[in-house]
Amino acid sequence: MMFRASLIAMASVMLFAANTAALAQEEDEDEAPERNLTLDKATVMRLGIRTAPLQTAQYRNETSGFGVVLAFDTLAQTDADLTTAESAAANSRAAADRARALFAADVAVSRQTVEAAERQAAADAAQLALAERKAVAAWGQGAPWRTPQARSQFLARLASGDLALARVTFAASAIGDGAPSSIRAQRVDAPSGGQSWTSATLWSAPTDPTFPGRSFFALIERARGLAPGERLLISLPARRAEQGVIIPAAAVVIAEGKAWYYAAAVVPLIIPLAPYIEFTRQVLDLGQPLADGYFVTGGEPGEDVVVDGAGLLLARETGTAEEE
């Protein structure tokens, strides 16, 4: 009986030990492997590895949207209808005022004449209100012109091609309740770094039924070459720029399905004439590109990174370097 109890106790201890070892192995597997290597300065020079200090940079994230250049004939027709209604309302109002003045002065004007003039003035005022509502539906609230003369000048610039009016739309969740102060427009098929246009005059526009979200009208200056109906990619810069550093494009290496770069630091030694340099591979997010590399917020300005020979370091670190 005692022998059986001893066997049970021994099996329990062995099972506990096996479980503990398996758990420790799982914890070791979960830990991220060290991705670094240390080389002496002579080897670094022989391999042609070159480093450069990280430079400070700013990144202004952009919200993307879509736009379309509006046709001039639709705007011109709306303006013509509004101008006609404004002229008719002004003339009939003046005629009614004149008829009332003559009737009050007892100058051969009948009451029927005054009433007819007033009815015409009321009808023309109603037509003007309808034309104004149609103009608001076409041009939105908050258009930059305040007088018929200013509107006429605006249309003249549109007709000349120096100015373009575009409807731009952003996802409501991306832009919130505020109105953008400026945008950048680019053709849909434009190459990277291709021509772009800016606009700093924007106001609310009716919702675009083909693209849900918030829509605005934008006046695009120096719009030569933009054709009516042309589709645009719209970029809205963030109001506040982030501060960080730029990882040079030359520092990027691809491994394990990710982008990486090597940070370099001198290992302090007792003998200063024989320094060693430690290279640490760090993962890089490519989601914030700049002209010369990639922006990161966690980097340290002045930190050295490898800009030549990163591939050789990767081969040595992963054990794929050829025997010398």
Proportion of residues in helical segments: 25-40%
Radius of gyration: 37 Å
Q: What gap, in angstroms, lies between the N and C termini? A: 67 Å
Tally of strands: 16
Beta-strand residue percentage: 25-35%
Low-confidence stretches: 1-18, 20-32
Number of helices: 7
Shape: rod-shaped
Q: Can you give the mean pLDDT?
A: 80
Précis, in short:
The chain is an alpha+beta fold and 324 residues long. It contains seven helices and 16 strands. The chain has two domains: 32-59 and 242-318, conserved putative lor/sdh protein from methanococcus maripaludis s2 fold; 65-237, no CATH class.
What does it look like?
This protein is of the alpha+beta class. The chain folds into two domains: 32-59 and 242-318, conserved putative lor/sdh protein from methanococcus maripaludis s2 fold (Beta Barrel); 65-237, no CATH class. 38% of the residues lie in helices and 30% in strands. It is built from seven helices and 16 strands. The chain has helices spanning 2-30, 41-47, 72-104, 111-139, 148-160, 172-175, 310-318, and strands spanning 36-40, 50-53, 55-59, 62-69, 163-170, 183-187, 196-199, 201-204, 214-221, 231-237, 242-248, 253-255, 258-267, 276-284, 293-296, 304-308. It has a seven-stranded antiparallel sheet with strand order 7-6-10-4-5-9-8. Strands 1, 2, 12, 13, 14 and 16 form a six-stranded antiparallel sheet that branches. A three-stranded antiparallel sheet has the order 3-11-15, with no helix packed on it. Strand 12 (253-255) and strand 13 form a beta hairpin. The longest helix has 33 residues, at 72-104.
